[in-house]
Amino acid sequence: MTVRRLAASAYAPLGRVHPRVSRVGFGGYRVDDRSDVHREALREALVAGVSLVDTSTNYADGHSEILVGEVVRDVVARGAARREDLVLVTKAGYVQGSNQREAQRRARAGTPWSEMTTYAPDCWHCISPDFLRDQLTASLGRLAMPKVDVFLLHNPEYFLTDAAHRGVPRDDAREAFYDRLARAFRHLEAETAAGRIGAYGVSSNTFVVPHDKDDAVSLERVLASAGPGFAVVQLPFNPLEIGAKEAVHTADGRSVLDVAKSAGLGVLVNRPLNAFSGRGLVRFAALQPDVLRELGHAAEWDAERMKPLMSYLDAEFGSAPNAGATHDATLAQRTLRALLATPGVDVALVGMRRPAYVRDVLGAFA
To answer: Model pTM?
Structure first.
């Protein structure tokens, strides 16, 4: 099957990292090298011109990174993409699955990773330099590459949440938190100098919450301790979770998008099509009926929820057609267009683990 390539208008710079990346990135949260469907979806996305791929050490317990490495090498070897045109992003911080078992083994042996946050029985967290060194080595091994373009600390706010649960005074917790970040950044500057990463940054779900929340991560304070290699932030943004553009991030009334762009950072947004709300998980994706059946949903279920969601797009972003109008795009496409029209947003990371999802997303740029 012929793959339609992205138009030139679907690309933009990513801060200081790369002069031209696709404005949609392939999100690797649920992909796995043991799935042929996932492999084909990533291959199709790359061949079509999607040039940014986001994964993490904990996605599919490392199998997401394996898939990314294998498919990228194959596509490049076949001449369907050039490695220098691609931006590969991975993250570290979560200690789960095999990573947690290794942490437990090391603790028993008397050589634990330092400063481990034992947040929950099945979810620990760590950003200490010794942990990050080992995690990057493992990531590069799974990717089978000498270098990753962007390396992010993955939701370091777990430390703040844990401290709040333990009753640590907020100011004390924050001082300890930013001290840990500063030491992590010094290590990542050394990794940048050594050529194992191209740039680094932070992915945080609480960049977007009001600055006075216990677990809020202040990008201003992050930047104060970061070095020149700090170039990317990642945060959630979708039509129901709009904290990224609200003037709640700083005491003087700026949004995190304002702070990021004034610093020249590249901004990746995640969860663009999946929102957490008081009603539970809301999907901003209009899927084909056969795919809905495969996922166990009735087409009527999504259709019924599309109407109020499209109305919300109208009210909040002003760029989606009226919910009652003739559709010229799917809800996912309308949502992506609205999010990417928001000043300060560079790339929307989309879960595209099936070829049908890839084609739907690419249709946003038709």
So the answer is: 0.90
